[in-house]
Design a protein that fits this description.
heterodimer, A: alpha/beta, Rossmann fold, about 35% helix, about 25% strand, B: mainly alpha, MetI-like fold, two-stranded antiparallel ribbon, 10 helices, about 0% strand, globular
C-alpha cells in the first residue's frame, strides 16, 4: 500500500460531479504535481486531501489511516497564504507549532520557530505582520508554517500562482531547495506545467471539468538538482511539457460543448444624448428591476 | 500671504463662525417669537456659578456642572459595562449559530426599537424590592438593555464576516474551541465589535438623561428636569450644551480607540 492512496474518489456540488474516479497513489518522500485548468476542481481535490471537504464517494488513506477531517498531520500552504493578519510572522508560526507540540517548553518552541523562519530566509522580518510583507514573503511564511508542524505530507494549493514571474521563479528554487533538505512527501496543485515539471518527481494532469479526473502520470527523469536555465533545453523536459499540455488541451476540446443559461439582461436601448431629455413618453429614467427580462443565451464553456 | 493665513486658521475660524451664527439665531429668537427663551447673555450670567465652580456641592440638586456630569458618567459606565458583558456573548452566539439566530433574532428585532422611556418603568418594577437602590438598578437596567443592541448586532456581523481562510487555519491546526475563540474569532471580529461598542456608548449616553429625569437622580439629566420644574430655563440650555459636549468627547475617544484596533 502506498503512503497516500486515493481510490475512486468523487465529489459533487449541487448535483453535478466536480471530480470523479480520482485514483492516485503517492510513495513516501515523493513530490507529485497535479496540473490542471483553473476551475477544473484542483482546489476541491486539495480540500478533500486536507479534510476540509468530505468526498461523496471513494476513500482517501494517508499512512494507513483514512482522512475524515482536517488535522495537523497534513501541512497545507493555501493559495491565498491564509496568515492571520493580527499576528506577526513569528506568532503565526508559533500558533501552528503550539498546536502540534503543546508540551514543548516555551524555549524549544521559540527555537523551532526561529529555525523555520531562517529556512525561508525571513529572520529580519520575524516581528512584522503579514500586512507589511510582500506577496512572496507571505507565501514563504505560509510554507514555513506548514513545515514547522512537521507534517506527514505537505499539500501545496497553487502556492505561487498569485506572485509575479520573478518572485515565482525565486520561490520555486527555494521550494526545490527546502524539499531536497527534508524530503517530505508533497502533493502540489498548480496551473503551470513548467512549474510542475521543474519541481516534481511525477506530474499528473487533471482533465477539464466538470467531472474532472486524473490523466496518465508522467515520470520526470530529470536529475536533481535541476538547473532553471539548462532545463529549458533538456529534450526530456521539452517532450514532457508537450505531452502534458497536449493531453490537457485535448481533454478540454472533448468538453467543449455549448450549454444554455438563463441570464437576466437589462432592457437597454440607444439614446440620443444631444436631444433634450423628454419628461413624458419613452425611457426618461433608469432601468428598474421589474423592467429586466430573462433571456436564454448560449455560453461556451 | 493673508489668504494663506486664513487657510491655516480656517479649521478654527469656520467653526467659530458657525457658533456665532447659532448664537445670533438664538438671540433673534429670544427677541421675536420665543419670549420665554432666556437670551445668551442671561444664560451665561445664571449659569456662571455652575461653570466657574464646576465641582462645588451646595446641595443635593445644586452642584457644579462637572460634578453632575461625573455622576452621570459613572452611572453610564456601569450600565455600558453591563451592556458589553451581556451583548458581546450574545453577538458571538448570533454570529456562530444559525439556530440561535433563527430563535432569537425576531425577539431582538422587536425589542431593539423600544424607547428608554418605556424600559425605565419596567426596570423600576423589576427592582422594586431593592428599596433604596431601586432607582439606580432600574436606570442601569434601562441603559444596559437600550445600549447593547449595536454591540450585539455588530459583533454578530463581525463574526459572520470572518473569512473562511482563517477558520480553515483553525480547523487544520485543530485548535481547541477556546483557542479558536481567543486566537482567531475575537481578533478577526474585533474591528466590527468596536464599531458596535462606539454606537452603544452613544446610546448609553443618550439614555442617561431620560433615566435621570424619570428617577430624579442627581446628574446632568436630573438637574435639567429639576430646573425646568423650578422655571429656571437658563440651566436647561447649560445642560443641553454639557450633554452634547460630553457625548461628542466620548465618541471621539471611542473612535480613537477604534482606529488603534483597526490597524491591529
Amino acid at each position: 500500500m502506498a503512503y497516500l492512496e486515493l481510490k475512486n474518489l468523487g465529489k459533487n456540488f449541487g448535483g453535478s460531479a466536480v471530480l470523479q474516479d480520482i485514483n492516485l497513489s503517492v510513495e513516501k518522500g515523493e513530490f507529485v504535481a497535479i496540473v490542471g485548468f483553473s476551475g477544473a476542481g484542483k482546489t476541491t481535490l486539495l480540500s478533500l486531501l486536507a479534510g476540509l471537504l468530505r468526498a461523496d464517494s471513494g476513500t482517501l488513506i494517508l499512512n494507513d489511516l483514512e482522512i475524515t477531517q482536517p488535522g495537523p498531520d497534513r501541512g497545507i500552504v493555501f493559495q491565498n497564504y491564509s496568515l492571520l493578519p493580527w499576528l506577526s510572522v513569528h506568532e503565526n508560526i508559533l500558533l501552528a507549532v503550539d498546536a502540534v507540540n503543546p508540551n514543548w517548553s516555551a524555549n524549544k518552541k521559540k527555537e523551532h520557530v526561529a529555525k523555520y523562519i531562517a529556512m525561508v530566509n525571513l529572520t529580519p522580518a520575524r516581528d512584522q505582520r503579514p500586512g507589511q510583507l510582500s506577496g512572496g514573503m507571505r507565501q514563504r511564511v505560509s510554507v514555513a508554517r506548514a513545515l514547522a508542524m512537521d507534517p506527514q505530507i505537505l499539500l501545496l494549493d497553487e502556492p505561487l500562482s498569485a506572485l509575479d514571474a520573478l518572485t515565482r521563479a525565486t520561490l520555486q528554487d527555494e521550494l526545490s531547495r527546502i524539499w531536497s533538505e527534508n524530503k517530505k512527501t508533497v502533493v502540489m496543485i498548480t496551473n503551470d506545467p513548467d512549474e510542475g515539471i521543474y519541481l516534481a518527481d511525477r506530474i499528473i494532469p487533471l482533465t477539464a471539468g466538470p467531472g474532472a479526473t486524473l490523466g496518465p502520470s508522467f515520470q520526470i527523469e530529470i536529475p536533481r538538482p535541476r538547473d532553471r536555465k539548462s532545463i529549458n533545453h533538456d529534450p526530456h523536459f521539452k517532450q514532457l511539457r508537450r505531452e502534458v499540455v497536449e493531453f490537457m488541451l485535448s481533454s478540454k476540446e472533448e468538453r467543449h460543448t455549448a450549454i444554455t443559461r438563463k441570464l437576466i439582461l437589462p432592457d437597454i436601448e440607444p439614446e440620443d444624448l444631444n436631444l433634450p431629455r423628454r419628461l413624458t413618453g419613452w425611457r426618461t429614467r433608469p432601468i428598474r428591476k421589474h423592467e429586466m427580462k430573462e433571456e436564454s443565451v448560449e455560453v461556451n464553456t | 500671504m493673508k489668504e494663506n493665513l486664513f487657510k491655516k486658521l480656517d479649521w478654527l475660524l469656520l467653526p467659530l463662525i458657525g457658533v456665532a451664527a447659532m448664537v445670533l439665531l438664538w438671540q433673534i429668537s429670544c427677541a421675536t417669537w420665543a419670549k420665554d427663551l432666556p437670551t445668551p447673555l442671561k444664560t451665561w450670567q445664571t449659569s456662571k456659578p455652575y461653570i466657574v465652580e464646576p465641582f462645588a456641592k451646595r446641595g443635593e440638586m445644586d452642584q457644579g456642572i462637572l460634578r453632575f456630569t461625573w455622576y452621570s458618567l459613572t452611572l453610564v459606565a456601569k450600565g455600558y459595562a453591563l451592556a458589553l458583558i451581556i451583548g458581546t456573548p450574545i453577538g458571538f452566539l448570533l454570529g456562530l449559530s444559525k439556530a440561535f439566530t433563527k430563535t432569537f433574532d425576531p425577539i431582538i428585532q422587536v425589542l431593539r426599537p423600544v424607547s428608554p422611556l418605556a424600559w425605565l418603568p419596567l426596570g423600576l418594577v423589576l427592582f422594586m424590592s431593592a428599596g433604596k437602590n431601586a432607582s439606580e438598578l432600574g436606570a442601569l437596567f434601562t441603559i444596559a438593555i437600550c445600549s447593547m443592541w449595536p454591540t450585539v448586532l455588530n459583533t454578530a456581523v463581525g463574526v459572520r464576516a470572518i473569512p473562511q481562510d482563517y477558520l480553515n487555519v483553525a480547523k487544520v491546526l485543530k485548535l481547541s474551541r477556546t483557542k479558536t475563540l481567543f486566537k482567531v474569532l475575537i481578533p478577526a471580529a474585533l474591528p466590527c465589535m468596536f464599531t458596535g461598542f462606539r454606537l452603544s456608548l452613544g446610546i448609553a449616553w443618550l439614555v442617561i438623561v431620560a433615566a435621570e429625569m424619570l428617577t430624579g437622580r442627581p446628574g446632568v439629566g436630573g438637574f435639567l428636569w429639576q430646573e425646568y420644574n423650578s422655571l429656571i430655563y437658563e440651566q436647561i440650555i447649560l445642560c443641553i450644551i454639557t450633554i452634547g459636549l460630553v457625548g461628542f468627547i466620548l465618541d471621539r475617544l471611542m473612535s480613537l480607540l477604534e482606529r488603534r484596533f483597526k490597524t491591529a
